[in-house]
Design brief:
The complex is a heterodimer of chains A (about 425) and B (about 120). Chain A is mainly alpha-helical. Helices cover about 65% and strands about 0% of the residues of chain A. In chain B, helix 2 runs antiparallel to helix 3. Classes of the chains: A mainly alpha (about 425), B mainly alpha (about 120). At the A-B interface, helix 1, helix 3, helix 6, helix 10 and helix 12 of A face helix 1, helix 2 and helix 3 of B.
């Protein structure tokens, strides 16, 4: 990769580039144990740093505490406020409680499958964290196929969930497992297509190169492909079983889905890693769509990793927000939505972006302002396509009837909302 | 840094993940209480005794979704190499891909008309 101008110096105390400190440690390791030791030590430094600076605080205090607190406030409750100041020690108390609980396996369960399921669930979550760029030189593993890698690793929870559901010897677990498989299969295709749309524009699958592309052209991919972000968000929520689309563990329908027979730490691992997956998805969304650690030149002064973490938090808040406000959908609605609404839009998005990229390459347009133009065009097309396609499929706003009336399909009734008045 | 350095970190991540789970599961076995009891090991079914076999039959529509997924996932497998390289290729490669996606959308339309996409 060619050298780029940067204000960050090579001094180890320069917070703008933490890789300098890592470099100092590596030099030390090389002096002590030669090349081999440095070879082993370098990823370890990366993991320890990422864990201490980002994963641990975020996981505990945004993932567990923050999520519960924010949802609590959204639902006019207090949320956790007993353990420690403002309930801040709640995640630690939870961990201790889970550790000291009995982790039970029911009779007839397939013990091998049941105990390997958490391993299959946890390891890919850690692997996802390895490829996320925190700064210009701060990435643990800058692999050239990171987007494909993300898709592969984000599909692992399904396998683990299916193992959990199948091995539990319980009807609800089995139904939950079948549901999550069906759901992930449906949402996988649009997800792959929209991510390929971003690959088409940047011409690379490496996350670091994607961030460089966005910082070189002074545009974020979300401005070029707005519909891609929407589809990415919905598909990832569905894959990771987040609440508006979590029919696989819908407690009002099938107890706890594939986790019905899980208890204690075995359940805790699934719970904690659900958060880790959501976090990793937020990281990928921030990297691919929101310019990663770059912020239109500001990353020269503010440490880029702080910019990145702020973006991840903002995106993660979106996850929490949807979880706190939207009601759960039915499985038939979700399937129809994936195949009939999202798949055609994703394919259209891919072709549109390919045509625009080809125009830029063939006409040899050097200025990056062309992408803002294409972004404007795409925004209009996206709005028109979403609105028009929803109209074609017959999606409507919820009706507000003048008096309560029974609805056969749902088995409930639509109440009369007096604030809206008669129409 | 060569390519293998990068994948070493990925391998390390696998080991870290596995060790994490193993430690957690062993710790909970050591710390937590453990008492085997007949009634406790009955699989959960809303507090009642379970009815019938626990590996229940599932509806055939899941199978249809899986078949449909196979078709479209194979499609995306073909699109992946195209997406990275198509700017270096001649222009007509784009039209080939348009034709490819159109043909596959015809498949989607067919499945739609047969009612496969409806969850019944």
């Amino acid at each position: 990769m060619e050298e780029r101008d940067s204000l960050a110096t090579d001094n180890w105390w320069d917070l703008r580039d933490l890789s300098n400190i890592a470099g100092e440690i590596l030099d030390l390791a090389e002096r002590i144990g030669g090349n081999e030791l440095a070879f082993i030590v370098s990823p370890i430094i990366g993991f320890v740093a990422a864990f201490l600076i980002f994963i641990l605080p975020t996981q505990l205090f945004l993932g567990v505490y923050g999520e519960r607190k924010i949802i609590g406030r959204m639902q006019s409750r207090y949320g956790p406020n007993r353990v420690g100041p403002f309930g801040l020690l709640q995640p630690i108390a939870d961990a201790v409680k889970l550790l000291t609980k009995e982790s039970y396996t029911p009779r007839g369960a397939d013990i091998l499958v049941m105990y390997t399921a958490p391993i299959v669930f946890v390891a890919p979550a850690v692997m996802l964290m390895a490829v996320i760029p925190f700064g210009p030189n701060m990435v643990i593993a800058d692999i050239p196929v990171a987007v494909l890698y993300f898709l592969a690793m984000a599909s692992f929870p399904v396998i683990a969930s299916f193992m959990a559901g199948w091995g539990s010897n319980n009807k609800y677990s089995l139904f939950g497992a079948m549901r999550i498989v069906a759901m992930t299969l449906s949402y996988e295709v649009p997800l792959v297509l929209v991510l390929l749309g971003t690959v088409v524009i940047t011409g690379t699958m490496s996350l670091q190169d994607m961030v460089w592309w966005q910082s070189d052209n002074n545009i974020w991919l979300v401005f070029i492909a707005p519909v891609a972000l929407v589809i990415f968000f919905i598909a990832v929520s569905a894959e990771l079983n987040r609440t508006p689309v979590d029919i696989a563990e819908a407690e009002s329908e099938i107890v706890a889905g594939y986790l019905t027979e899980y208890s204690g730490m075995k359940w805790g691992l699934f719970y904690g890693m659900d958060i880790a997956y959501a976090l990793a998805s937020a990281c990928f969304a921030a990297t691919i769509f929101f310019g990663g650690w770059s912020l239109f030149g500001l990353e020269q002064w503010v440490p880029p990793w702080i910019l990145f973490i702020v973006k991840v938090y903002a995106f993660y808040f979106l996850f929490i927000w949807t979880r706190g406000t939207l009601p759960r959908l039915r499985i038939d609605q979700l399937m129809k939505f994936a195949w009939q609404f999202m798949l055609p839009l994703a394919a259209l998005n891919l072709l549109l972006l390919a045509v625009q990229r080809l125009i830029v390459v063939e006409a040899e347009i050097e200025t990056s302002a062309i992408w803002w133009l294409f972004g404007g065009i795409n925004l209009i097309i996206a709005a028109a396509a979403i609105y028009g396609w929803a109209k074609v499929l017959g999606y409507r706003r919820d009706e507000v009837p003048e008096r309560p009336r029974l609805v056969k399909e749902v088995g409930g009734y639509v109440p009369y909302d007096s604030s809206k008045g008669a129409r | 840094m060569t390519l293998y350095d990068q994948w070493l970190a990925v391998l390390l991540a696998v080991i870290v993940g596995t060790v994490l789970v193993a430690v957690a599961l062993i710790a909970t076995r050591l710390i937590g209480p453990y008492a085997r009891e007949r009634a406790k090991s009955v699989s959960y079914e809303c507090g009642m005794l379970p009815v019938g076999r626990n590996w229940a039959q599932v509806h055939v529509r899941y199978y249809l979704i899986a078949i449909l997924f196979l078709l479209f996932d194979v499609e995306t497998v073909f699109i992946v190499p195209w997406a990275i390289t198509f700017t270096e290729m001649p222009e007509f490669v784009l039209y080939y891909m348009v034709a490819f996606i159109v043909i596959l959308s015809l498949g989607l339309v067919y499945a739609w008309k047969r009612g496969v996409l409806e969850w019944r």
